[in-house]
Design goal:
Elements: H1 20-23, H2 26-29, H3 33-54, H4 56-64, H5 85-94, E1 109-114, E2 124-128, H6 129-146, E3 153-156, H7 168-175, E4 178-181, H8 187-195, E5 201-204, H9 206-218, E6 230-233, H10 242-252, E7 255-262, E8 266-272, E9 279-281, E10 287-292, E11 299-300, E12 307-314, E13 325-335, E14 346-352, E15 357-359, E16 362-364, H11 366-373, E17 384-388, E18 399-405, H12 415-427, E19 431-437, H13 438-441, E20 451-453
Parallel strand pairs: 3-4, 3-5, 5-6, 6-7, 17-20, 18-19
Antiparallel strand pairs: 1-2, 7-8, 8-9, 9-14, 10-11, 10-12, 12-13, 13-14, 15-16, 17-18
Amino acid sequence: MSSSREATSDGWLPGDHCDRDWIWDREVETESPAASRARAEVAWEEQRRHLAEGSAFYRRKLGEAGVGSTGVALADLDRLPFTTKDELKRAIDEEPPFGSNLSVAPERVKRVYQTSGSTGVPSVLALTAEDVRTWTAIGTRTYYATGIHDHHSVLSTFAAGPFVAGHTHFVLSRIGARSVPVAPGDTDRVLFGLRAGLADTLLGTPSFAQYLANRLEQEAGDTRGLALAHVVTGGEPGGGIPAVRDHIQDVLGVTVNEVMGIGDVAPSLFGECPAQQGMHFCGTGYLWPELVDPDSRAPIAIEAGAVGELAYTSLVREAMPVVRFLSADIVRIEGSACGCGRTSFRMRCIGRRDDMFIVRGVNVYPTAILAIVGEFRPQVTGRARVIRRADAVSVDPPVPVEVEVPDGAEFESGLAARIEAAVRARLIFRCRVELVRESSFGDSGYKTRLTVSRQ
């Protein structure tokens, strides 16, 4: 796929020749909202019985809330309490290694992933053989939607170790694409693979794709010799930010699409089609999504323009099902109907609830600052982070912001002040910008932490 190629009316690109009816679940992905809901209601009937019989965690949780999963229909899902990541972590700590939410016999667990443990001891994510197939099916919808098909060669920098991102390799195999795995952050090997013509598609975080573009731009490299035509970003917000996306596309001569998932639910849940109008929900029939107010938890209708936090309920998960799991992903709904034929809702991720901070009563997401900083290229690399005290939600202005600038490059003496003025004009708060050289900013080969806590 190339940035110069135009999508057809059904969202396909000329030359795409996969068996569409096999790899694209057309019956489900193009069905009406009423049909999707009817499908979900049938699945929930079976899932709620599975919860009542298999999950000690949910029997206790729902019992304490005065409700039982066996008596709550999908239409009344808001009667059930939300589930948080901390609750799932405590359930594992109570009954290691799989926890009280393991809803099948331990011998049925056939694959185990681990969380990063960035906030403590890693947790485990257990899958039955059927759960593995479910994750692969959702992932296939997700990546196929982006335009990755069987005739593509895909260089993936998503880690294939203990983390759920490694499940992408199974997805690529099911699609039938050539897979070229490279370790995260191994820029030299990525460049070797691309220059050798091993791949036309790159999977990576937006931070890495941005870093790759910056490096080639600084080296005045001729990207026309690269086979690369398509970049799919995931793992963090950013691929949908115009300043980030446009820079990657312009420097590398590619089309950028983004994907999103969450480990406790499924590593791939949303995929953006060639129209680049937001990521389609790709979990129809497997998961029931809700949009809720991040503060009050009141339900919000999933319709164009709505902003809220996504919550998920498993419809078919066997080993570790979740009910109304709060994802902490804050999204804006872009719409539903699309020229590609998919009928599920489309969205953009604004940021993570745990990255959000408050300035004089106004909620601010670091991605909004990132979008502004990116407009000051080439004097900046596009990376930035907010500095705040540990566990501080409210930040008094001026908000400390570190902005990365290229090593060795000269920049105007008033650059920091210009960025500060742009932030104040657009986001209505004062910040204090410190320019940090690339060599001192930190690792640029994988994810970028958008907020850093310091005393």
